[in-house]
């Protein structure tokens, strides 16, 4: 969702900020803007639509300052108009502010200000914050921000400059991520590392209820109560080239093709083949409790949730643990009973998804212990969980998650295997699992090598407006994820169903116009999937089967077949999802969709 990037240093801010905004595009946005200090005044430019619209507005203008703040907005309060785009100002154009999050008490604050004659120019909650900082300003910008922090309810990551404070940017955080970047030519503040990764990989994470003052020569952090904080910069492993397309037409395709490496990275240094047991250092802080864990609840949203659904079957196969998987957004409405030693495991690429964060906070209040599998190092979920495992998959830029899904499945399998070896699995079973895991990167390469074949299938079917995806047990969540991928990037309507439920409804839809993607590898559900395929065939529904290499039976029954190499039944999802990702990608590409930034979607959903 909304993205923040700010800069103060020795270089011109304009190109640094525009480049930073482009790196944030993937988060999803509908308008953008920036404010740059130029001598004694502050220049403001805003535009609806893509960053190029903003660039057009600035083209030919003299904007030469070295201090500036910039923002991509994903509308929550008020339509995506220029007046509603950030930066927002107070009525006297003294304060310029960018903000991620939601000010919950903005209406009451606004009413109070309007009574005092303060004039508003937008429908946003953010403008209230700018006015509030202006009202509180008595010469010290950080003090004014501190006071405003005590008056607002809700969430914020913000950066602010003031006309009469020529050499400072003040930033503050409550609930929305904010990172300081330390480069050799100045200081950055951004909502994620990608906005500054071309300039630095040294970052300092701001925590909730902290604020910081950035100057061209340094930064200082303090709490909302003005207690100074010393915090050293950390080095992040992301490289500038991770945020480049490297010859691929879209990030989604690049990330699909990165999966042999990202699956490898999820296992790197974590396998002990001789012992048949993985090593997960990040879990060790809670090992004494978790090794005896009998109740685990996975919470997640979107694609991460479907990874959790696969995880449930994998844990049930490999461990003695009672499993539940909950959509994080529904978690708080459930009356979950937490027996002693219950663990909650949050799955999240960004580590910032608002519902997932709210779910773990609620679980903590109820006495559960918290684990996380997170890609973004230092993110809120990684900080608020007691232990966890990082994906080490590099930035995922495409809004539709691909490489993180298979990375999450790999790590879930490692975790289940680790606990399973303690609880019930033999050495032989452990060794067999690790051998199969080690084969995965090459097996994924083999699936990816069928890209042309999958594109040809997409060419044949991309104009069909309804698709069905079917799978059972381990691959039932893959049917849901396959349908989600197709919906997200191609806007084709698709349903993901447990194949056993087909007779209870979706079979009514089967006709020669509706393709069914049947995920039917040679696992313990094989015979049942063959029956489903037969039922579709007898109703003349076109079948695109994802089946194990050399499966002549499925080949005969299907219109199209995509082969995946043989593996253990609980590892098939990692291979079966790849054709689904490629099908979605190619359909979207043929339909000329905005693949990396699908309409209305955001990469990181930081509001509930
Ligand atoms: C958004 C993204 C999805 C992602 C979901 C959960 O909806 O578009 O790709 O799966 O959020 O995000 P998380 O960062 O928590 O995995």
Automatic annotation (TrEMBL):
Residues of the SIS domain: 286-425, 457-598
NCBIfam families: glmS, PRK00331.1
Keyword Repeat found: yes
GO MF, any single term: carbohydrate derivative binding
Protein name: Glutamine--fructose-6-phosphate aminotransferase [isomerizing]
PANTHER family linked to this entry: GLUCOSAMINE--FRUCTOSE-6-PHOSPHATE AMINOTRANSFERASE, ISOMERIZING, GLUTAMINE--FRUCTOSE-6-PHOSPHATE TRANSAMINASE (ISOMERIZING)
Transmembrane segments annotated in the record for this chain: none
Organism: uncultured Desulfobacterium sp
Annotated Pfam families: GATase_6, SIS
Cellular location(s): Cytoplasm
Main enzyme class: transferase
């Amino acid at each position: 969702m909304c993205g923040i990037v700010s800069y103060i240093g020795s270089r011109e801010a304009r190109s640094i900020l525009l480049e930073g905004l482009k790196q944030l595009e993937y988060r999803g946005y509908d308008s953008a803007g920036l404010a740059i200090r130029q001598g004694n005044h502050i220049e403001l430019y805003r535009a609806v639509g893509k960053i190029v619209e903003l660039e057009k507005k600035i083209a030919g203008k003299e904007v030469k300052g070295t201090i500036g703040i910039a923002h991509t907005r994903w509308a929550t309060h008020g339509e995506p108009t220029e007046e509603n785009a950030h930066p927002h100002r107070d009525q006297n154009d003294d304060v310029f502010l960018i903000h991620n999050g939601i000010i919950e008490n903005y209406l009451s604050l606004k009413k109070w200000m309007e009574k005092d004659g303060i004039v508003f120019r937008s429908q946003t909650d953010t403008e209230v914050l700018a006015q509030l900082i202006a009202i509180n300003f008595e010469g010290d910008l950080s003090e004014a921000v501190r006071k405003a922090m005590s008056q607002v309810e809700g969430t914020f990551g913000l950066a602010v400059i003031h006309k009469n404070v020529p050499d400072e940017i003040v930033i503050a955080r409550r609930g929305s991520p904010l990172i300081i970047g330390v480069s050799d030519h100045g200081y950055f503040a951004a909502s994620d590392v990608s906005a500054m990764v071309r300039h630095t990989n040294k970052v300092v994470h701001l925590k909730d209820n902290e604020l910081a003052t950035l100057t061209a020569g340094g930064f200082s952090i303090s709490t909302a109560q003005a207690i100074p904080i010393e915090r050293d910069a950390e080095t992040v492993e992301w490289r500038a080239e991770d945020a480049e397309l490297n010859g691929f037409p879209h990030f989604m395709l690049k990330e699909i093709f990165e999966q042999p490496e990202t699956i490898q990275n999820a296992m790197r240094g974590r396998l002990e083949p001789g012992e048949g047991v993985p090593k997960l250092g990040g879990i060790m802080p809670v090992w004494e409790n978790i090794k005896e864990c009998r109740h685990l609840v996975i919470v997640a949203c979107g694609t991460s949730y479907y990874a959790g659904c696969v995880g449930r079957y994998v844990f049930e196969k490999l461990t003695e643990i009672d499993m539940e998987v909950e959509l994080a957004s529904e978690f708080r409405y459930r009356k979950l009973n937490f027996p002693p030693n219950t663990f909650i495991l949050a799955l999240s690429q960004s580590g910032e998804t608002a519902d997932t964060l709210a779910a773990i906070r609620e679980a903590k209040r109820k006495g559960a212990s918290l684990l996380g599998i997170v890609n973004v190092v230092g993110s809120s979920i990684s900080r608020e969980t007691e232990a966890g495992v990082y994906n080490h998959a590099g930035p995922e830029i495409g809004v539709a998650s691909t490489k993180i899904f298979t990375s999450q499945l790999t790590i879930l399998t490692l975790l289940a295997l680790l606990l399973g070896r303690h609880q019930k699995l033999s050495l032989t079973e452990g060794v067999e699992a690790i051998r199969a895991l080690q084969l995965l990167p090459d097996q994924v390469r083999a699936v990816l090598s069928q890209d042309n074949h999958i594109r040809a299938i997409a060419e044949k079917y991309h104009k069909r407006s309804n698709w069905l995806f079917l799978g059972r047990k381990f691959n039932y969540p893959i049917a849901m994820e396959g349908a989600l991928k197709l919906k997200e990037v191609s806007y084709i309507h698709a349903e993901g169903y447990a194949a056993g439920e087909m007779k209870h409804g979706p079979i009514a839809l089967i006709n020669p116009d509706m393709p069914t993607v049947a995920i039917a590898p040679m696992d313990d559900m094989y015979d049942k999937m063959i029956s489903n395929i037969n039922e579709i065939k007898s109703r003349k529904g076109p079948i695109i089967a994802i089946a194990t290499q050399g499966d002549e039976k499925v080949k005969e029954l299907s219109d199209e077949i995509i082969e995946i190499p043989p593996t253990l039944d609980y590892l098939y999802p990692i291979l079966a999802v790849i054709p689904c990702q490629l099908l979605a990608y190619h359909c979207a590409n043929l339909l000329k969709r905005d693949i990396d930034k699908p309409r209305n979607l955001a990469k990181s959903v930081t509001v509930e």
